[in-house]
Amino acid sequence: MRDYFVYTTTTDPRASVMLAELTQEYDARYGNLFSPGGAAEEMRRYPPETFAPPHGNFLLLLRQGQAIAGGAFKRLDEHTAEFKRIWTHSQFRRQGLAGLVLQELEAQCQRQGYRQIYLTTGCRQPEAVGLYLRHGYQAQFDPEGDLEALRTLPFTKAVPRQDIMSEITEVGEIAFSHPHPLPRQANEPAAAETGGSNRYAGLRIIPARYPARIAGSVLAVLLLAAIISSVATNPRWGWAVFAEWFLAAPVLEGLGRTLLLTAIGTVLGSVLGTVLALARVSRSPLLASLSWSYIWLFRSIPLIVMLLILNN
User: Fold this and answer.
1) CB–CB of 165/3 below 8 Å?
2) Averaged pLDDT for residues 137-160
3) Measured between alpha carbons, how far is 104 from 70 in angstroms, rounded to an integer?
4) What would the 3-class secondary structure string for 56-117 be?
5) Among 82, 108, 133, 201, which residue's Cβ finds the most Cβ atoms within 10 Å?
6) The pLDDT of residue 107
7) pLDDT beyond 90 at 227
8) Which residues form the N-acetyltransferase domain (predicted)?
9) Antiparallel, parallel or unpaired: β 172-177 and 152-158
10) How far apart are CA 82 and CA 112, in angstroms?
11) Rounded to 5°, angle at Cα 42 from 152 and 287
């Protein structure tokens, strides 16, 4: 599978699918939460030159000529680029493409002289939050807080220093096979020119030794063996009594009731959780507030206290 990056502009016809799907997805998730005009107003907010060199850039990841992922950045200040329009086609998700786009945009930010990255995502895109956290972005908010109240979730990251080309890519292509290599420096000699792996033929590789790790492993094995021996041979465990009652009628009856209550609790919990989740993301302030209050109450009360209340 041969994919390739293209640095282009937002007016490129190949970007139309990306921009249309972004607009549709934003509308489905947020409606007019951020602006009366919905996602279309946000997509028209920046003119094409905003995402063009020397201060910005617009990236598409193509597969057989079709845009399957992409992203852009613009100047926020002299040293900071702001990422926008990070997107993966709905038919090609869960392939790590968004991560590739982030890495390439970070590399391009370095080429264009930026030192810091800033980006935001919405409160109803948990997959985007997870993506940025996995790739080393620092959340400028409490991920455990009320994200719906925050609405906009900011992240920052220092531009990774990589061994990449220094010139600015304006409109061009970078081809790669997964995982894609970074371009070689123009003045960097190829392996054949430097003798390749023959440079290291005279070196002897000595495996690293970890005596503390070995000692800890031996100690753990001995401790585990002692526990198993105690459980198997100590008469105080009363294995004869255990065997006598293991299949007794009262035990089996209690087991059946436990499994039944577990199944009922699972079903009721799933139904209640779904209702609360739908209410939580509802545009109705009343439903969202009631759901938030219920969740806050039961998350705040310790389980042992809840059991005491219910049993009395």
Assistant:
1) no
2) 90
3) 10
4) CEEEEEEECCEEEEEEEEEEEECCEEEEEEEEECHHHCCCCHHHHHHHHHHHHHHHCCCCEE
5) 108
6) 93
7) yes
8) 17-160
9) unpaired
10) 13
11) 50
In the prediction, which pLDDT does 187 show?
Answer: 37
Three-class SS of residue 46?
coil
End-to-end CA distance of the chain: 64
Q: Helices 97-111 and 126-134 meet at what angle, rounded to 10?
A: 60
Residue 204 has pLDDT above 70, yes or no: no
Strand-pairing partners, residue 84, are 72
- pTM, whole model, 2 decimals? 0.53
Per DSSP, the chain holds a count of helices (H) and strands (E) of 10, 8
From CA 261, how far away is CA 255, in angstroms rounded? Answer: 10
CA distance 67 to 71: 11
63 burial type by CB count under 10 A (0-12 exposed, 13-18 middle, 19+ buried): middle
Band of the pLDDT at 1, cuts 50, 70, 90? Answer: low
Tokens of 131: 């993506």
In the DSSP assignment, the letter for residue 238 is: -
The residue-averaged pLDDT of 240-254 equals 89
pLDDT in the model for residue 201:
55
Per-chain mean pLDDT for the chain: 84
Quick check: bond before 47 cis, omega within 30? no
The beta strand positions in the chain, using DSSP E, are 2-8, 57-63, 66-77, 80-88, 116-122, 138-139, 152-158, 172-177
Check the CA dihedral 284-288-293-294 and report its sign. Answer: positive
Residues of the chain by 3-state class (helix, strand, coil), percent to 5: 50, 20, 30
Query: Residues with Cβ < 8 Å from 273, sequence gap 6 or more?
Result: none
